[in-house]
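FW: tagging you since you asked about this chain on Friday. Here's the raw sequence from the shared folder, copied in full. Didn't touch anything.
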Amino acid sequence: MHPTPAQTRRRHSRGFTLIEILAVIAIIGVLAAFLIPQIPAYIDRGKVTACEANMRGIYGNLMNYHQRFGNLPQESGAKFIAAIISRKVMEGTAANSKRLTCPAVETSALTSLADRAPGEWYTDLDLVDGQSTAYAGRDMEHFPLRKFPGSGKEVLVCDDNDPEMNHSNETVVLYADGSTGRYDLVTLEEQGVLEKDAPVLPVGPASPVEELRKVTLD
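HL: got it, structure written out here
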C-alpha cells in the first residue's frame, strides 16, 4: 500500500537535518561576532539619548523656576542645577534627583553623594559642589543671562567630562532656548579645535570651545 500525500508530508517534516542545524549555528555565530562588539556603542547611544531627555527636563523646570521667582538660579555650576530641587520647584524624589546628573556616569563616582539617599542629594545647596552631579551648570557669576528663554547659542548645562568624557565621543549640551546639541570629538578635531586623538573635550573656563567656557563644574 503506497503512503498517502499527507503521510509523505508528515514523514518529511519530522525535523531538521544535521546540515541544516549546523548552517543555523553558523549564521548565529556570524551575527553574534558582528553584533557583540557593537553592544557598548549601542549602550552609549542610549545613554546619550537619556542624557538629552534629562536636560530637556531640567529646562522645563528652569522655566517653572523663572515663572515662580522671576529669574533663574543665581548660583553657578552644580548649584545652578540643584536649585530647582533645593527651592522645591521640582520634587526631591529619588527619581527626580537622578535626572539631574548624566546617566552615563556612575553615581558612586560622585563623591559628594556618598552615604546620602538620592532624595537628599540636592535638597541642601550648602552640600552641593562639583562632585554632586556629572553635569556642568551655567557660570552665572561671570556670564549671567540677559534674558530667558534665550539664545540657542547660550549654554545652560552640559556634560562635565571630568575627568573623562561622560559619553565616549560626544558632549551633550542644553541651550537657553530649550534645544539640545552635541559636540563630537572627531568633528572638533577635523575643525582644528581639538588636537588629534584628544581624550577629552574640557568644559569650563579652559574649554577650547568658546560656548562651553560659560559653564563651570563647581
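FW: The chain has one domain: 36-216.
HL: agreed, and The chain is about 35% helix and 10% strand.
FW: great, closing this out.
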